[in-house]
Design goal:
Elements lengths: L1 H31 L6 H23 L4 H26 L9 H23 L14 E4 L8 E4 H23 L1 H11 L1 H6 L4 H27 L8 H12 L4 H21 L1 H4 L3 H16 L14
Helix pairs in contact: 1-5, 1-6, 1-8, 1-9, 1-10, 2-3, 2-4, 2-8, 3-8, 5-6, 5-8, 6-8, 9-10, 9-12, 10-12
């Protein structure tokens, strides 16, 4: 029982990180109605900015405090993501209002390649370290309830808590604020939103900036675990099944989908892997997403689209 709970907790914590990355896809889709293939590149670009400025700031200021360096680097990286959001709106999205979804999709692919190249040109292409102070040593918990206790990775626990707080804040933002409601209106119909006074350009800058902050936090966490390297762009691919499962228009769906994928991967690898030779964790999420595409393509919480002809 203890081993099962240990695996379950590990899956839940991994699932929260998947949910965090998936939120970037949901945010952009809710505001523009297009799937954002640039989210993985945004994670890498933001993480590179964070890692490099955390290294440069002590050299520039002479202040050796890691806390000061990380806070200052986070602020600067956030400002950079604001500039990126403004540039994307000004030079790409502004000229694509009311265009076909395929056109917007191709635009995000171009943005993805541009950010990949720009990030490595400015910040370098080596593997960089992000140290935000999360403890890496595991702890034993519930020793009085289970013999030997349950082994919990403290870094994963802290990362899951950070992700949960951000996910909760974004959920409240969409449900309780005027800007959040405006975002939903913009996604439904660009021209109708403009006709009732919703400033489309400003809304797109806001949503891409929020998605950039989500990418920055995700990049910090994954960069702390894996190092900041080009493979971070593939983290977004791990979130694709999450948004398919939860629904492209649902913030709660991204949360539930991430938890299901995280738990499913861990449990299947541990309990079914020995019978099929292992490797289930790699493809489990994609097979589950395929099943949903066949039988419920809008996901668990997505809106069913009905086109009237």
């Amino acid at each position: 029982m203890a081993f099962f709970l240990e695996t379950l907790l590990g899956g839940l914590m991994a699932g929260m990180l998947y949910s965090l990355v998936a939120l970037g896809f949901v945010l952009i889709f809710k505001a523009s109605g297009v799937f954002n293939f640039a989210q993985g590149a945004m994670v890498l670009f933001a993480a590179l900015a964070m890692a490099r400025f955390a290294t440069w700031i002590p050299l520039w200021t002479g202040i050796e405090s890691p806390v000061f360096a990380n806070v200052a680097a986070f602020v600067i990286a956030s400002f950079i993501m604001l500039i990126v959001a403004w540039a994307i709106e000004k030079f790409a999205l502004r000229h694509l209002v009311n265009q076909e979804g395929t056109t917007l999709l191709m635009a995000t692919l171009g943005i993805s390649y541009f950010l990949d190249g720009l990030g490595q040109t400015i910040f370098g292409s080596d593997i960089y370290k992000i140290d935000i102070g999360m403890p890496k040593e595991p702890i034993m918990a519930f020793e009085s309830a289970f013999e030997g206790g349950i082994l919990i990775n403290k870094e994963d626990l802290y990362a899951a808590l950070i992700a949960a707080v951000l996910v909760g804040a974004l959920s409240m933002f969409f449900q309780k604020t005027a800007t959040g409601r405006a975002l939903r209106a913009v996604a439904d119909d660009h021209q109708a939103a403009q006709s009732i006074g919703i400033p489309l350009n400003r809304i797109w800058v806001i949503v891409w900036f929020v998605a950039g902050i989500v990418a920055l936090v995700a990049g910090m966490i994954w960069g702390s675990k894996l190092g900041v390297q080009f493979s971070l762009t593939t983290v977004a691919l791990r979130a694709l099944p999450v948004v398919i499962l939860g629904g492209l228009t649902s913030v709660p769906g991204a949360i539930i989908g991430g938890l299901i994928i995280g738990v499913g991967e861990k449990l299947s690898e541990v309990f079914l892997g020995p019978y099929v030779g292992g490797g289930i964790e790699i493809w489990f999420a994609y097979v589950l997403a395929l099943v949903f595409l066949l039988f419920r393509p809008q996901g668990l919480f997505g809106e069913k689209i009905i086109d009237r002809v």
